[in-house]
Amino acid sequence: MSILVVGSIALDTVETPHGKVKDALGGSALYFSAVASLFNPVNMVGVVGADFNLQSIDFLKKRSVNLDGLEQMGGETFRWGGRYHEDINLRDTLFTELNVFQDFRPTIPEHYQNDAFIFLANIDPELQLEVLAQLKKPRLVVLDTMNFWISGKPEALNRLISKIDVLIVNNEEIQQLTGKANIFAGAEELLQRGPQAIVIKKGEHGAVLNDPNGYFLAPAFPVSRVVDPTGAGDSFAGGFLGYLSTCPEINHEQLRKAVVYGSVAASFTVEDFSLNRLERLSKSDIDERVENYRNMICF
Amino acid sequence: MSILVVGSIALDTVETPHGKVKDALGGSALYFSAVASLFNPVNMVGVVGADFNLQSIDFLKKRSVNLDGLEQMGGETFRWGGRYHEDINLRDTLFTELNVFQDFRPTIPEHYQNDAFIFLANIDPELQLEVLAQLKKPRLVVLDTMNFWISGKPEALNRLISKIDVLIVNNEEIQQLTGKANIFAGAEELLQRGPQAIVIKKGEHGAVLNDPNGYFLAPAFPVSRVVDPTGAGDSFAGGFLGYLSTCPEINHEQLRKAVVYGSVAASFTVEDFSLNRLERLSKSDIDERVENYRNMICF
Fold this sequence. Notes:
The structure is a homodimer. In chain A, the strands form two sheets. Chain A has a nine-stranded mixed sheet, with helices on both faces. Chain A is globular and about 50 Å long. In chain A, helix 9 packs across helix 11. Chain A is 35% helix and 26% strand. The first copy, chain A, has one domain (3-297): UDP-N-acetylmuramoyl-L-alanine:D-glutamate ligase (3-Layer(aba) Sandwich). Chain A is an alpha/beta fold. Chain A binds chain B through residues 17, 86-88, 181-182, 184-185, 188, 202, 205-206, 208, 214-220, 222-226, 253, 256-257, 259-260, 294-299, and chain B through 17, 86-88, 181-182, 184-185, 188, 202, 205-206, 208, 214-220, 222-226, 253, 256-257, 259-260, 294-299.
């Protein structure tokens, strides 16, 4: 079952207490694909500039990531720069250069249009709606967004939320979306707006799943040396949707396990800069950590 | 097996987005006792002023809390005032009036000196050392402290940490104690200083247990209406030590379960102001929520 991702491809310049990288691979589509492709083939839709070295993502092709939907345009690739504090949960954005990403209008290649498992990574919700309209038989649509769109395009975003299956948000986003300071109260409200399930990402504090069957509380896998948190959320989505794409049926139990796969995927990502850890990650690494994780939450 | 607690008894004036109480019951010894006494008899050592209405804690006596160690002095009871923000994790201390608590020198009554399960609630570590010296056969000593003592009396505190069994800290305290921003790295270091186990309280994000057998990750029980977080930490300690006092043997599995009992106890406390929810709490309420909780973390 192919997985489709529509999102950003970026060159990130990141500084953390553990070092610095310049123009390193980044962007939601790359983080997502690097993980999800360990479960099933991934079709990627995105845009890069003329300066982007396609060989740098050869490892994705080896993992059955199809790049027919990757457009290379004249101009420069989307660039993001950020600096993380000693408290690694805090970061400053130093610059955002949209470049070719500014005019990104995702076109879904015909041989992607039957994909079943869809990740709408964080882009303009109007574009995300256009993507949805091009799909013929999506089975599970997972949506990510950000504060910029919640305040800037609330109407398009709400329309979109009513059409998707799983909404992934972080604690600030859920507060902004619902006006509720309490994330559980916020999750209950969001469930009324259409999605089958809400997943709240809390970074180092783990994740919470809420669906009509109740809550699943997933602490983050302990990482004693967080080198670079960039991409953790998109890696989470990659593990989450990657796992679900292997399930004959999707029910509450599968959603729980998907959250665990997402959490574990994210825990690898943060161990190194950029996609470095994911590049040398295997499915069995993930499976092994899932079992370690299970042992840390039983009682 | 009797449980001993040495801590504060306070009259709290608290304002939260859900309302306000003035001169309401508070203090570590009361929160702890209200919970721990649902598991086993509790002996309490503390001090109140002439203005304290002893009848207000009659419900504790009915739960086998022995008050022989509660000294009533001339003068006023310790008072604390605080205001919680819309984001209930943030609070401002409005006033702290130590009053009779200022000169508190805990004396352990002779019939308490054989108690096995000891909670040294947050007071001056030099006094906590004096308490320890008065005990004849402690089986498990649990220590709480705060930022004020970590910076103000580091030497006494470190001596104390080398003598106790379980150290309970929150995320800021562990960073302050160890100089490490990462709580897992901090917990590893603290384990080297003597305790058998470290418990990190993360408020709404749950708790983490670390001992030589590894980690146990406990998300917080979801509470969709947090009325007043005051006392959650001491209630946690009450559930934690209360549960352990019922165990013939204390091993890693029991410590895990104790963390769950602590988390669940705290989840009740925050549902109402002061000790209001705890006053009408039963052991079976706790047991039932522990089972609900188990269902929220399995996968």
